[in-house]
Each structure stands twice: as C-alpha cells, then as structure tokens.
Design goal:
4 copies of one chain form a homotetramer.
Chain A lengths: L4 H33 L6 H28 L10 H15 L4 H6 L6 E8 L14 H12 L4 H8 L2 E8 L10 H21 L4 E5 L6 H13 L5 E4 L3 E3 L3 E3 L7 H10 L3 E3 L24 H15 L2 H4 L5 E3 L6 H10 L16 H8 E4 L6 H11 L4 E2 L9 H10 L4 H16 L4
Parallel strand pairs in A: 1-2, 2-3, 3-4, 4-7, 7-8, 8-9, 9-10
Antiparallel strand pairs in A: 5-6
Helix pairs in contact in A: 1-2, 2-3, 7-8, 8-9
C-alpha cells in the first residue's frame, strides 16, 4: 500500500507539515528566549505573534494527521488506531488552548466587556420564565437563572465579560396586581441581589426591580436601592398590572414624580420587554410563536418607548436616561417615518411633546445589543443613533454569552467603536471608573 | 458711496462673475456649433456638459447680483430697485430651467422610474382617507386622490416617474362587513380604474381591489381583473372585516384556494397597511398619533406578513409573490431575531411552516420604498433581502412624489442598484417589456 | 379660452393653492401671536414650524403661478406678462428666504461646523495653485485664495461654518529646495496668517507652514507658531524637496527630534497631499488628468502615512496626532489587506514597527471629509476608524463650501455623529472650548 | 474530595448535561425514524435540524467533560486520565463532524461557490512566486502552486467551492521582455492547463495567459485558448515589459485591435496585479513591505484600470468586461472623487473618454473578493457598483480558501446577495449553465 503514489503524496505532505510546524515553534521559542535573555519584557504583540505561530503549527499538525487519516482506509476508523489517536489529540490541542486561527485573531478584543441586560431569578420568581423554553430545556434554564457564581462567572471569563449588571427575570414584579406584594417582592429580590453582589463586587453590579404599580413605592425602593444598596439604576419589565388602576404605562401623569426622582438620582432606567396581555393583542391569536422575543416583546416595548417620547416626559425631565434592549426594539429602522409620514402636511404633530420624536430618541435613549446579534442591524443602529449610545449585552441566560461575544468581537464595525460599545460607553453612562 | 473699498470689491466681484459667466456660455456655444457644423450628433454627454456650464454661468450671475444687492443698503429692499429685479430674474432663471448644480447632477438618473404604491379614490371611497390629514389639508388630499390625469401626470413628469401602478385608497373594501357590498365596490373601483388606464396605458397600470371577506368572490374578481381588465396584480388593505367571520387574516385555512389562484395567475399581491380596530390594540389608547403610518400600520402589516410566513402558506404555494411597502414594515431590522431568539434551544420552531421565517422572507417577498425615504433604512433592507427585491414607490398622494424621487435619485446606493430599484426590478417582477 | 375645461381646472387649482397658502400663513401667525401675548418665549421648535409652514405656503404659491403659467400659452413666455412676473416673484421669494422644503428641514443642523482643510495664499505663493484649474477659472480661484474676510466669511455664514483652521496653499514651502528660503517663506506666511486671524479670532485659527527641508528649522518654526502666534497645529504638503538631501519623507530618522517636539507641543499634524515628481511616477505618463486630487494625491499621501506607521514612529511617540484629508486618502478601504495579506503566513511583518498597521491607524490618525463628499465612503470610514476620528472639512477654495456643507448636513449618518464630525470632535482634538 | 460542594455542583452539572444530550439525540432519532417509517423523504430542513440537535448534544458533552476536568485538579492534566481522554474525544467529535454551532448554522450557505482568482504554476514559472512568502513557507507555497488535484480539490470540497477558474501565477509571462519567449511560455502554460482541466472539467475552467508584449500574438493566443482550448477568458498580470517598447499599459493605441478581438470573443479579461519596476516607484524605497499585496499591487492595478477608462477604450468597445480583484484595488472608495474633484469647475475632464469615469466603472467592470476578506469593504463595494458585479474569489494559494470561505459565508450581507456573489453572478458573466 505504501507504494501507491497517492499515499506517498499524502505521507510527503504530512511530513512536510510536521516539519514546518516544528520549525515555526522552535523559531518562535528562540525569539522569545532571546527577548527574555536580553532582559526585555515580552509584549502583548509578542504574545499574539507566538500564539499565531503556535496556531499555525497546530493547524499543520492537524493537516498532517488528516492526510494520514485519509490514507489509512477502513482501519483509520478504529478509534484505537494510532493515526486516529494522533488526529484526535491534535484536534483537542487545537481546541483546548484556543489556538485556532479565528479565535487568536480576536483574543485581545474580547477582553473586558460590560453586559447589562443579564438576568437572574430567585426561587419565588424563577417559574415566571418556565414558558420561555421547551420543557426539555427548562432544567438548564432554571439552573442558569438561579446560578450566580459558578457557570455565570465561567461564561463571563470565557467570553471576556468583566462585569454584568444584573436584573431580576420577567415579568415578575410587574405582573403582581397587588402593589404591596409587588413592593415586598421587589425588596426581597433587591436585597438578595445586593448580597450576591457583595460577594463579587468586582464582577457584578445591580439594577433595581421596582413595584411600578405604585409610583410612590417604586420611588421609595429606587431611592433605597441606589443610596443604600449601591445599585446603578433600575430595570423594569414593561407595563405594570395594577389591581386598582389596570394596565399602567409610564407616560401616565401619575408617574411624573417617579421620573423626577429618577432624574434627581441620575441613574439609567432600563425598559425591558414583556408580553401584552392576550386580550389586548388578538393579532397574535393562533400564532403563539409570535409572542415573546420573536416579535411581541419588540412591539410592546417600542410603543411604550414612543409613548414616553410623545408624552412630553423628556421636556419635563430632559436628563432622563432610558435604555432599550435588542438594538432598540425595532425603533431605529422606522424612526424617520415616525416623524416624517405625510411630510407635505406642515402642521405640528398631534402629541404633547415639543420636539420631533427622533430628538428625544437621540438625546435620552441608549440601546443594547441584547439578543440581537445581527451586524446589519447594529450598523443601522449606529447610523441612526450613533455609536456613543450603543452598549454590549447578551441577555443571559435566555441568550448565550458566547453567541453574543463571538458575534460582537468580530462584527464588522471599527475597533474603536467596539471598545466603546463593549465597555467605555457603559462606563461613562454609569460613571464607573475604567 | 462708490468710493467705499467694500463696495468697490463687491462691484469688482460682480463684474468678474458676469465676465466669467459670459465666457463660459460663449465657449460652450462655440463648441456645440462646431459639433453641429461638423455634422456630428450632439450627444447626451454634450447636453450634460452644456447644462452644467449654463448652470455655473447662472450661479455666477446670481452671485453677481447678490454682491451688488448686498451693497445697495436699504434701497435694495425695494422690489422695484433694478438690482433687486436683476437678482430676482437671475434666481428665477436658475430655478426655471433646472439649472442649479444639484439638480443637473442628477437629471438623467431620475428618468423612467416605476412606482407601485400609488393610490386613487372614487367618490364612494374618498371619505375613507379624510382622517389621514388635518382639516386644513383635506381639500388638497381629496383633489390629489380623485385626480388622475392632471396633477398626477405632472408630478410623474417632473420627477421621472414613467409608470404608476394604481390602487384604491384604504381601508375601503376591506372595511365593509357585508361581502356582497364589498364585492360590488371592488368591481366598481376596478372598472373605473380600467377605464382610466385605457386613457393612458403608457403611464398607468392597475392593481385589483379585492373583497377578501369572501375568498371565492376575491378569487373571482382577481381572475376577472387579470384576465379581462389587464391588471398586473392585487393590492389589499390588510385584514378584512366580515359580518359573518369577524376579523380575517389571510393565513386562515379558508384562503388557501384563493392563494392557489394567485399562484396560478402568477401576479404579485401587495399587502397594504390598515389600522387595527381600536378594541384590538388598546396599547395606542391616549396616543392616537401612533396610529396610521406613524407606527400602527407597520406593526399591523408586519405581523400579518409573519402570520403568512409561519402558517406554511409558502410551503404550499412556493411561487407566491408578496409585496410590502414602507421598506418592509420594520421586518428587515428584526428578522434575524425572529429566527434566532434563544438560539441555544435547538428544537424546531413552534409554527407549521417548514423553514426559517427568513427563508420565506428572502424568497417570497418584495419591498417598496413607499413613505420611508430614509437611506439608512434602505441600506439595511439591501443588506437583509438584497437589492433585487426592493422597488421604488412614493405612496402618492399621502406622500409627495418629489420627496420620494429627490431622495431616491440621490440616495447613497450604487447607480446600478438605483436603476434596478427604480425600474428594472419592477419590470421583471411584473413582466413588463423594458 | 377661459372656457376650456383644462384652463378652468388649472385656475381652480391655482385658486385653491393660494387659498391654502393664505390659511397656513394666517394660522401660523395667530399661533405665534398667542405665544407672544401669553408671555411665552418663541422656541426653536416654533421657529422651525413657522418656517416649514411658510415654505409650504410658498410652494403653493409657486404651484399656483405654474398652473396659470402653463395655461397662458405663448403669451406667458413674455417676461413682462403678469403671470410670468408673479411666477418669477414667487420663485425668488422661495429662494431668497431659504424657504424651500429641503433647506428648512436641515437649517439647524448646519450650524457651527468647524472646517480644517481650508487654504489661503499670499502673493508669493498663489501661483503654485495656477495649474489646478483651467485657465478660465484661474481668476476666480486666485480671488478665493487671496480673500480672507469677504467671500470666505460669507461662504462660512451661508453654510454654517463657524470656524476655519487656515493653512497655506500647496506645495509652496515643501517645493523650495533651499532650506533657508523655505524657512523664510514659512515665517512670512505664518506671520501674515497670524495677522489675519487677529482680525477675526472668532472665525479663524491657524495651521503652521513648516520648512521640513530642515527638521531643526521646522521644529523652531512650529514652536514659534504654537507658543507665540497661537496656532493650533501644522499642515505640511507631503514630502519636501531638499537641495542637499533630495526627497524627504518624514519617517526618515532625522525627523525623530521634530516629532518629539510635535508630541511635546501636543498639537495635531495635518499631512496634506502633493503630487509626486514626474520622474518618480511614470505610471501617470500620458495621463496628466490622474495627477492631483483625481488620483495621485491620494496615493502619494497614503503611502507617506503608511511609511510613518511602518517605521515605528508611533512606538516612539505614541501620542502623535496625524490628520489626513479626503476621508483618509483611500486607506480605510484597504487597511485590512495591509495587515492580512497572506494571512496563513504567521511570521511577523517585515517593518520596524511593533504592532499591526491598523493599530496605529486607529490610535494616531484622524480623517477629514475634505473633497470627498461621498456618503458611502464616509460610512466605510466610520466602520473602519469610528466616528470619533472623523472631522468635517471642505478644502476651500479648491472645493466649494456649499457642496461640502449641503452634502454633510444631509448625509445618511446619525445626527449625533453629525454633531461630532461637524464640530465636537475637532473641538476636543484641538482643545477648543465649545 | 467528592464531598466538596463545588465538586458536587460540577458533577451534577455534568450529569445534567449528559442527560440532556442523550434526550436530544434520542428524540431526534425518533422523529427521523417516524419520517422514514412514514415513507416520507428526509428534507434538507430535517437534516439541518438533526445536525443542530447533534451539535447541541455534543456541546453539552463537552461541557460535561469540562466540568469534570476542572474538578480533577492536578491529576486531570495527565493525558491518560480518563476525564482528559473523554474531554479530548468529545472535542474531537465536535470538530470532526462539523457539529459546532457556528459551522452548522452556515453549512448550506457554503455550497457551490465559484472562485476565479485562483492560481497555479508550472515548473518554469513557479520561482516567480518565491519572494512572496518568507523562506520558511516557500515549500508549502510551492506545493500549493504546483498541486491541482489533491490539496486544491480538498480545499474546494471543504469550503464549498464547486468550481475554480485557474490562471497562471504572476508576473511570469508579463515579465519576459522577448515577445517570442513570452508567447512560447503562454502556449505551454495554457496547454498544460487545458490538459489538467480535461481531467476535472467538473471542477476547473481556465483563463488564458497572454503575451501582451505583442498585441498580435496575444490576440492569436486568446483566440486559440477560447475557441480551441475552451477557456473562458484571460487573466493578465498588469503591464508587460517589452524589449522593444518598454513598459506597456493596455490603453496604448496599439492594443485597440486586441480589445476588438476580446469584445468579439465576448470573454472577460481579468486585470491582475503586479509590482511596479523599482525604478518606477521610488516612493517605496526603504519600505519593501509596502510592495505586493500590502499596497503596491493595488496602486499599480487601480491606475492601470483608470488609464483604460480615461483613454476612451470603452467608448470604442462598450461591451468589454474587465475583472479586478481585491474588491476593486481601492477604486470604489475613491471613485466619486475621481469624477468630482473641484466640482465647481464646469469644464469637461481632460481625458479622451466621453463619459464620467464612474460610468465605465459601473458598466464595464466586475470585482472579486480575492484577498480582501473585509465586510466593511465589501459593503462599500456593493454600495458603489452593486452586488450584481461582485464575485467571490479566494486568491489561492496566496490566500487560504478557508479564510475566504468562512468569512464570505457569514459576512453580513443578504443571503440573496451571497448566492449571487458566491455563484450566480459568475455563472451569468461566463455563461455557465447553473
């Protein structure tokens, strides 16, 4: 068999590959040795170069075993065959030390991101997320929601997330019609979160859950969270259901004192999605797949945000900072049309606010990438609101941190914007020291 | 006064400008004369060059009068002052013969567009559009809707629109609960449209209005319109209200025979927006400004389109061609998320269709630019669905043709795509001879 | 003639237009009056609304006269015909008070731009620019170059340019082989510029011209310009021709002390284009049209910038700030390829610098829009280097300020980025108070 | 040790992961079994779903072993430890059957691309490429250039490339001053290529090498290659060096008959880069790293293309089809400036051609992605020339096919455009049956 020309070719290729791999590794080692001997520091650039060299050597080794593998015929399929074993080892090494070409190309970009639509649950709230995934995945999701210090930290480490700002799962507090009960749950969740953050203040910050059913209690709890617990803002899951008042959107007049407090505390308010009540959106009847993140979340949250903008809220409190997830819940794509439909009609728009809707969107809103890992959409958002107002987020545990990070770390935007969106925009918005 | 240095400078500048203008015009005339004397044809390029030269000359003349104007002091404000007069004349000429720099730069691009979300009304339907604009503008809108051969043709001529595919205003037929009445109105409107097209077959084509309250009657009317009246497709204003069946979206099973007929006739179906019934979308309560083109149209139509995609309709009738206006009613921005929310969950989606939603969107849908004259949005649409599936439209008379055309003719896309989106995509979709 | 139905229709339309125009203006006046009577301030938004209403009224008036004009037949061509006169007046008004729809839509965006590749000449240098334009245009260009306080200020006012940073025309100082003569000319030009700035410190700042033939003299003159004359940086026209040393690019070792001084002074250095010497670029032989801004400028300046980056200059002086015009002289489009050609070859690049070329480009370079008023190109630049490092400029008088401003004010980028690129990036880079 | 809570947690997680993996695989198998038992075909969609399920199961298995691995302490580092072994196996499987999440997401996109800047060498020409890579890599590159049926086909198979259009390496024929020798070498290379294509007509097509030193011989050889050898066009490596005539660019008058033949044969002409002669581009002196693909290739080829456009060639032969590699050698980014520098100067450009340069670029040019795997650049190219005129290519063996394919298959453009750029544009341009 060794006499077939094809086999000879493959063996030759394998040998050549091994040889080259050896040379590259040795040459690199020699260079590093010289640097070290010369008393010079090994720079970041040296490290990248070494890793790239190693990655290429590994890829040559893989190619060598593949070449041989292909030439072993049926025997090669036996997992105990030495060629198989060599191939498995080479692959494993390639994977283990993150040596593959793609990954190494981006290793230093991935560092030190801040993520801010990242959720947890407590025992009392975890069931609220049960319907989000098929039964088969519920155990996994539940584990992810309740976990804070094991898997979550590992995901962060593996994907270059330095800091997560944590928030309670949805809809939880917002779906409790009794305002006292909502208040109690908020306090319990916020206290729990504060305790957990205290264990890892280097990796976690907190958003307050708020009983918006009562603007007064919401205000009181926000003040407590910010001034006593050290939270950096609030995250609220869309409209609140109130026993007394029905469905509450936060453009309603009774919320103005709450917003006054938010402005005074000078912390961002994250408007997070929830589903509409079934009776309020019959358009989804017969199509439950359209609920949740697929579509209904976006519509619900976009309209809530538009209501805030049209209501004049930002004329009264021009320093409010509202965060929307999912690259803006569809708003950037259609924002021009909001202000410019029937543009030949020159009368003032029929809402109480004083400016164009886009003016508030550009001045009072920030968008995160949570759950919308689409470069085209990110670029459109950049061209509508500017890269200063976009913030990396994953939406863990409903979305994977690695999906978010791998996409973001190589998305086709400028590296300067990647640093801003990945980290420094958030640091500035939340006044973190970088 | 003539002795002030500033005045002297201005007079000098004016004189220089006049002189240069004269030279340019003369030099251009001599060139053209030489061409003509030499028996050569005057090319399109010659014409552009001449016009650009003239434009520059005019701009110099304007500058000359402005320089003088500024130096006349208070007297210059008198409209009978000779400098004022000269300035007015220069400006008027500049405007009249479309000589200004911007316009001339694009004159040949603007030619020969096809527009396909362009509406008309008949006396029985015109009131349906009364609420769209403030009272002050209703007379204008009404005139625009009823007019076909005067203002409309002029708008087309002035803005390089060779052909309009006309459709009845909204919601009209779709809002008539009695199916017979809806059928009768459809027939009347379609007959009227056919008559009008017959007067200008070079400038107009027609979309059928259809009584979707009855799939059978809708099918019958569509067949009549296509085979007898020569219409090129249908435009339907969202869901239909049926006395018998309530709200009808067209993913419902009873519509499959209708879609079979659409596929057999091989004509596109334009899914046009309408507002939700107030009881069905309380999210807009207190915010009527969000209805219509501002926001509710998009949500209503996007969800209708998603229902069609998720229902498996395009598995059964894979050759259906659906057109959406307004650059896709928000779908392109969020399409990735529709298919990829919770991407770590590897189960099949919970809808009847066999493929990803995006697969149908890419294969069965076309988008028009109607009412969404935003380059960022257009670019995002191109990067989601490709320039082969985007078609110019204005949404006359609700939007201005000149707003649409001026934007489109200079939007920052490639000129090759401009030709496709402006004209040849539509020609191919509707099988027009170009 | 008044009995023709077409004429009647047109007269009716004209009457309707006039009527609507009147109503809009009156209704607007009433609103403003109410505001004023109520003691409230008239807001910017009020002003926009009023202007838009007026613009629409004017457009109706124009339409009215056009309708009539078209109905006057041959008589209407007579310039003294009253309809002609009315049409001319309506057009003139439309133009005069900048009432047209497009302009008004952007009036407030245009304000307060800073432009920084804006040139002037003195008598000794003006001839250097003589070959740039055809003979016919030389008088105009010469006037523009020598003028500082008349036409230039008017262009700035009309186009929302608050501040110009002025620089001497090209190649001038760089093309003088004798270093003393180059030094003398630099001093003269810089002194003249300082005098002119002193007359309008609110509108002008200065870049130093530098005799780079001698690094020592260049350093000395830069220090004088910054510390004594208050200049904000330097603008140098590409390589210098030295009697003694031949062609000098600034990556050469003898320039390191100069760069040390630039870093110490902490002012930006604008690397402006010039043409290669004919003997050095025979590729353009027979194609003189490719010289200058058409192509050769870009190649010359891009390579000069690459030489700086590859030489390790920015390892030694990491705080240097280099500005390139024309959206980066082509670099952003090809920057990835510079670092990634033959990417399977894992050896270090064969230049002295320690990092990827892109790392320096992202950290040490800023780009201006001078002479490259192309949105596609601007967007690509944003996606390569980020909007923080792009700065508005026109390249007056070689390019028109109005061409630059009209393009930039409506380019399809976010308004937040427009403010940064238009003004605040420059303010931060040059440490102006905003 | 089993009693540490952390270890317990990890074991629990591992167990849960294994369990979930098992369930997913079994559930999937049952579904497929049911499909098969029911006599239905297994669809592409079924296959994707299965693979995604498998991929997730594998990822769970990997996670399980990682969890255990982390808990084994120092012992786990021993390669013979069972946990290590399990981890290596899980990883190897994940890699082997392409099961990882990212890859599976795109497997069907990657199919059936056509690549057209793909080079080979013969013994006489292979040394021309020796300087392209460092010594260490030369053996690898040489092997890649000479190989046609082994590694090359494997690269194509692994990366979804159905067809390569092959061309001789550079500069080879163009660098042979003697026209007879150049002719002989062309014939030999073309004959060899024809023989190789005959062995795999399903995977290879050919571009002719041409002795452009003699327009007559080049014409004769092109005719032979197209009509006798079945080649689909020509690829020429930039200017030719002629003993008699010096440096020859193909806008020179003596090439018009050659171009007439190209138009008559109706085949594309690929203008491939080469380096300038050192004496002709002293700007690179001291910076050899700027030669070749890093920068000089682009400048050389862009100017050659501009010369063709400005010379009027395409006025005479309007059906010529020119292909440029590397996403257009920088031209799209700067094309607007080529036509619009000094736009206030309204005279005709000073070149012989009749139209704007961009008009020829849009009508006569196609661009490939060879060696420029940058999404930002691709998007800019799409927005300048349109997606109909962009073609996938790798530039093998100088660039890796997997680098090209992995980038292209997931670049953020529309899937519809991906199909066109990947395959159907080329099929239409070369009149292949698809």
């Amino acid at each position: 068999m060794a006499e077939f020309p094809t086999i000879q070719l493959r063996v030759a290729e394998a040998a050549a590959s091994c040889d080259a791999a050896k040379k590259i590794l040795l040459s690199d080692l020699r260079e590093r040795e010289a640097t070290a001997n010369g008393g010079q520091a090994i720079t970041v650039q040296d490290r990248i170069t070494s890793r790239r060299g190693q990655a290429f050597a590994v890829s040559l080794a893989i190619r060598a075993t593949e070449a041989l593998n292909a030439s072993t015929g049926g025997q090669g399929l036996d997992v105990s065959h030495p060629v198989q074993r060599a191939w498995r080892d080479a692959n494993a090494v390639g994977r283990h030390i993150s040596m593959n070409w793609d990954t190494v190309g981006t290793i230093f970009k991935a560092d030190k991101k801040i993520a801010l639509e990242e959720h947890f649950a407590i025992e009392q709230t975890v069931q609220d997320s049960a319907g989000v995934v098929p039964h088969l995945y519920w155990e996994e999701l539940k584990y992810r929601l309740l976990d804070l210090h094991e898997r979550r930290i590992r995901e962060m480490d593996e994907n270059g997330v330095e800091l997560m700002i944590l928030s309670l799962n949805a809809p939880t507090v917002q779906a409790i019609p009794d305002e006292k009960a909502a208040y109690e749950l908020s306090r319990r969740a916020n206290d729990y979160l504060a305790d957990q953050i205290a264990k890892r203040p280097d990796r976690f910050k907190g958003f307050a859950a708020l009983p918006m059913q009562s603007p007064e209690l919401a205000t009181r709890e926000l003040e407590r969270c910010v001034t006593e617990l050290g939270f950096v803002g609030a995250l609220v899951n869309g409209f609140s259901q109130s026993q007394r008042d029905g469905i509450l959107y936060y453009d309603l007049p009774q919320f103005r004192p709450f917003w006054a407090a938010v402005q005074t505390l000078d912390v961002p308010f994250y408007l997070h999605p929830r589903n509409p009540l079934p009776a309020h959106a019959p358009i989804y009847d017969g199509h439950p797949w359209l609920l949740g993140p697929t579509w209904a979340f976006g519509q619900e949250t976009a309209v809530h945000a538009l209501r805030l903008m049209g209501s004049g809220l930002f004329d009264d409190y021009p320093d409010l900072k509202i965060i929307l997830g999912h690259l803006g819940e569809g708003l950037p794509y259609s924002m021009w049309r909001v202000d410019n439909r029937n543009a030949w009609v020159e009368t003032a728009p029929n809402y109480p606010a004083k400016k164009r809707i886009a003016d508030y969107f550009h001045a009072n809103f920030w968008l995160t990438t949570s759950g919308n890992f689409r470069t085209q959409t990110l670029v459109d958002a950049i061209l509508e609101i500017g890269s200063d107002r976009i913030l990396f987020s994953a939406d863990w545990p409903f979305e994977n941190v690695d999906h978010a990070a791998r996409w973001f770390d190589s998305a086709s935007i400028s590296d300067n914007d990647r640093i801003k969106i990945g980290r420094t925009n958030a640091a500035r918005l939340f006044k973190f020291e970088v």
